[in-house]
Each structure stands twice: as structure tokens, then as C-alpha cells.
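Below is one such record:
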Amino acid sequence: MAAAAPAGKLAENLLHFARVLRAAGVPVGPAQVADALVAVQLIGVERRDDWYAALAALFLTRHEQRPLFDQAFHVFWRAPDLLGQAQRLLLPQITGRLPRPRELSPRLAQAFAPSGLEQPRVGAPAEQQEFDAVLEFSARERLQSRDFEQMTPDEWAVARRYAGRLALPLRPVLTRRWRPGEPGAVDMRQTLRASLRCGGEPVLLRRRRQVRRTPPLVALCDISGSMHRYTRVLLHFLHALGQQQKLSVFLFGTRLSNITRCLRARDVDDAMRAVSRAVPDWSGGTRIGPCLEQFNRVWARRMLTQRAAVLLVTDGLDRAEPGVLQAAMQHLRLASRQILWLNPLLRYEGFEPKAAGIRVMLPLVDRHLPAHNLDSLAQLAQVLRGA
């Protein structure tokens, strides 16, 4: 039983190291972590270089991920802190060392703190150094119910990073297409066709089954003065979701902007910079009706195919004529599989649909959900997963 404890600590710390890499933008899945645990146990990890090479071979899939991995490996497994204690418990004869990076990547610094690992202080008492490398979730928990509008800049930065980790791909749905497959229903047409080769005797039953496909998602996000802060956080959520499935994203204020290509960048920081350059009317006015009308006229035929769902992010405070908004919403409702309306105004307990735009939109949506804090984004992730 005594030998099981070190292995458990090793597995736990490998898991935390993988989480740090994911937070920094390096995709590491559970299967890779499991393979890494087997690998380090097989090679014995008697040399630090061997450990580094094994983890790099398993965790890295792209050449540009190497600098981030090098820095993360040095910071997470360094001596005399975490790595030093690991050496004393697990790897008593580790030799060799990696060069210290000159400057820590901003993405990696964000991955470690404040919602990542609390970096141990060199020279601190042993009882204060947490070898277990437990992630500091307390800061995140305090922010779960806090309104994005009330967050400090540091808290907002943490919220944006966490929002990107909430995204879950939509559940695949049945389509009208069929393909040969076992098990499945008997395909009489193919069975009879195959029987012609055997004198008309159905020797072999052909079967088919319906194709399941993840439905596409279209997000239409308001960036007016009252909405831009909520939309900026949601864009981190949408960026992560777009890495997993087909997603189209449009921003609208006084005009409609297609930012789908901007969000295809694998690095979230690069994606957000591209969005900022592409959209000129942040924090301006809002014309929901005309912008939705433009989407219906120019983009809907291409985007709202294959039973696409629409994510509409706005407070419904429109300056245009209610009739324009109503016609645009009716067209959008008919063209889409469902409309999920995310409204930050639902943060108020006494919310009532008094604005004309809200009264027009409310009967034409399938779900009306809050979108003002991390809890509401977690709820959205579950709703999308079950959509």
C-alpha cells in the first residue's frame, strides 16, 4: 500500500500539468495523460531529460507548441519546489537539467495564475509548499456568481479564461441521411439488388442506419455599449466551441460583421486581436432589426442549413422600428432549428419585458437564458449539450 501513494501523486501532478498546458492553449486529452503516466513509469524517469522527452512526444502535436511546453515544464517541475519534492519521493537519482527560459509566455503566466497553479516560493517553509500542486479554484468559485459588469480587470481576465474551458460540443442529432451499417434496419432496396447475384435469393440482408451529425451553430452577438462587455467574455466561450464543431459567429451594433474566420485561429489571443481589427463599431449604438434583416438576406441561406441552431446574444434594446425587428425574427425563426436568446437583463430578479424590442422577440425564441456571469455560461454549456 505504501508504494501506491507516490504513483497516485505522480498521476495527480501529471493531470495538473496537462491542465496547465490546456489553459495555455496546448490541447491535451485524457488519453494522452493516461499514456504519459504509463510512459514515465516504464522509463523509470531516472533522468529529467527522459521525462521531458516522453511528455513532449505525447503532449505536443504542433511545432509551435514547443516553446510553451518548455516553459511550462520548467516552471511546473522545477527544483527545489515541485520537482525537488518529486525527486525525493519518486525519482531519487534524476540528473540533467533544461535551460531556464528567459521570459515566461503571457499565455503561460495566465495559465498558472490566478486560476491555475499557485507558484511555490523558493525558500518558503516545507509545510507551506504544496507538493500536491492542487489547482487554486477558490478565486474561480468567488467569481461564479459575480456580474461581468462588476468585475475588476484582473477578475475579468480570469473569467474570460474560464469561459473558454466551459465549451462543450453539441450532441449529435439524427439527420435524414442513411448509410450502410451494422446494426441497423434492413435495407430492402440493397438487399433485393444484392439478391440478383444469387438468382433472386436474399442470401445476405443489407442493413442501414441513420447518420448522426453535430448540428451547426450560428451566434449573433450584440456589441452595443450595454452589451460589449458580456459579448467579449462570450467570445472566449465561442472560440473554444468553434475548435470542436461547425460554428459561425456574427457581431452587430450599427452594422453586421462576420468574424467566423477570425475565431478560427487556434490561439485565443490571436483570435481576439483579429476580431478587434475586423469590427469597427464596438460599444456604439444598436440596430438589432436591420442587422438581423441583413443576416437573413445575405447569410441565412448558407448558414442556417442542416438544422442549425441560433444563439442570439442581446438585451433586446433596439433603436429601430419594432416592425423591422419582428419581420426579421419571424424569418429567423422559420429558417433555424431553434433560437436560444441570451439576455444579461435576466440578472435582475424583477425583470419584466417592458421594452418594445424585448416584447417582439420573446414569443419567437425557444429559450430565454441569462448571460451575465460564469454560472450562466455553465448553464448555457449544458443547454447546448442537450440541444
In short: The longest strand covers residues 173-186. Residues 176 and 207 are 16 Å apart (CA to CA). Residues 4-23 form the longest helix (20 residues). The chain has three domains: 10-77, 175-213, 217-386.
